[in-house]
């Protein structure tokens, strides 16, 4: 009897959706955990993660692949789904890995003063921060920024800067060596790929190979 196929649950980054995963080629079943509207701007991250986890069966062995802010949710969902294994792509496991400006925002509440529509209005600035070089990737980034809900962005940024982290959680990490948003990421990652914060698009083929290999290595042996 063949081993059961891998199951992947993909969680996109802040405000993004399934478009960032369009170039992945993975074995088995692939599901995108789409963002839910926060119930209020004060909804705790753990409460939100529990709502997101409702789409993941408790008894299912699976992979939670979180990109950027989605990595935070992958780690929180994994607290509720002990059979899940976590892969962080362009993400982080604790506040100590964030740039100094995030620490400043955490201490002062500076993030509350920044309009969530700022990056959509400055797409070329966003292009630099995300390390996007190809015009096709820039168009995708611009579309995602344009479609991002400001209320969700405001809630997510507040959760991001206040998150205490899960530094001891067992995870596999994939990070771009030129990531300007999370520059500390490569030193904590097992897989360092050329590129910026949007390697889920620019390095989709290599990330697909890494995830496929991880799934194959974790698969139980066939029962004869």
From TrEMBL:
Q: Show the GO MF annotations.
A: hydrolase activity
Q: Which residues form the AB hydrolase-1 domain?
A: 10-207
Gene3D superfamilies from the xrefs?
Answer: alpha/beta hydrolase
A Pfam family recorded for this sequence: Abhydrolase_6
Q: Which UniProt keywords apply?
A: Hydrolase
Q: From the Swiss-Prot or TrEMBL record, give the protein name.
A: Alpha/beta hydrolase
